[in-house]
Amino acid sequence: MDMTEKKVSSQLIYDGKILRLHVDTVELPNGKQALREVADHPGGVAIVAIDRDGNVLTVKQFRYVFSRVVEEIPAGKLERGENPYDAALRELKEETGATPARLTDLGPLIVSPGAYGEVLRLYLAEGLDMGAAAPDEDEFLDLVKTPFDKMVRRVVSGELTDAKTVAGVLKVYALRRQERESN
User: Fold this and answer.
1) What domains are there in the chain, each with its CATH number?
2) Distance between CA atoms of residues 14 and 16, nearest Å
3) H or E stretch covering 78
4) Of these residues, 5, 71, 137, 179, which one is catalytic?
5) Is 94 considered catalytic here?
6) Backbone phi and psi for residue 165, each to the nearest 5 degrees, phi listed first
7) pTM
């Protein structure tokens, strides 16, 4: 069955610095029409950074939308046309001061496919050399270092709820387990 929805029309609602919001009328596979509210986003990167002592680097920052401080892996928005690998290196350095000896692409993560057009590229950074962080002017961050096994427990227990952090940590855990089993 072809499940493709075809755009009939689009109405721009907002064109901002990060998001572009529009409401599209689509034709459904059965010929009927429906509305789709869409938030376009340029994409982003998120990095599971593990230092030479086996600690995962996270940052705590106030997230206005949730009115609270959230702990999460370093991440950031792609600039239009920016290479995700380069963006991951930039964001990791800005937010934590770390430069990795190895940066491994863990693949894309579709953040919220119902209405939000962001694709987040996950990376694993290892062999970190630590320097000074240089966050953006509007970023206020506290760096946290947590042993990897404890980070996995915090994710599984629900203590950490940020989706990119949960997905990234569990993906690294699964890859490490897979590597141990194949050896």
Assistant:
1) 6-40 (no CATH), 44-182 (3.90.79.10)
2) 6
3) none
4) 137
5) no
6) -70, -45
7) 0.91
Question: pLDDT of 116-126, one tens digit each?
Answer: 889 999 999 99
Q: Give the amino acid at 10.
A: S
| Rounded Cα gap, residues 77 and 88, in angstroms | 9
The string of pLDDT tens digits covering residues 41-69 is: 999 999 999 999 999 999 999 999 999 99
Three-class DSSP category at 17: coil
Residue 100 CB burial class (10 angstroms; 0-12, 13-18, ≥19): buried
| C-alpha atoms less than 13 angstroms from C-alpha of 102 in its C-beta half-sphere | 9
Classify each residue of 34-64 as buried b or exposed e, where b means 16 or more C-beta atoms within 10 Å of its C-beta.
Answer: eeeebbebbbbbbbbbbbeeebbbbbebeee
**Pairing assessment for the beta strands 116-130 and 98-112 based on DSSP bridges:** antiparallel
Show Cβ contacts of residue 15 under 8 Å, excluding neighbours closer than 6 positions: 21
**Dihedral (C-alpha) 107, 70, 78, 155: value to the nearest 10 degrees?**
0
Distance, CA of 118 to chain centre: 9
